[in-house]
Amino acid sequence: MAKKHQREYRDRLFKAIFGRNTEKSKRWRLELYNALNGTSYTDPNALELNTIENVIYMTMKNDVSFLVDSQMTLYEQQSTPNPNIPLRGMMYFAKLYQKHLTKERLNLLSTQLVKIPSPQFIVFYNGSKEKPDRYKLPLSDAFIRENKTGDFEWTATIININQNHNTSLQKNCKALYHYVQYVSRVVANTRNGMENKDAVEEAVEWAIAGELLDGYFKEQRAEVMAMSLTEFDLEDSIRTWRNDGIAEGIEIGRSEGKEEKAIEDARSFYANGASIELIAKSLGMTIEQVKAIVTSEVLENA
Question: In what order do the strands lie in the sheet with 134-138?
Answer without folding.
Answer: 48-49, 64-68, 71-78, 118-125, 155-160, 134-138
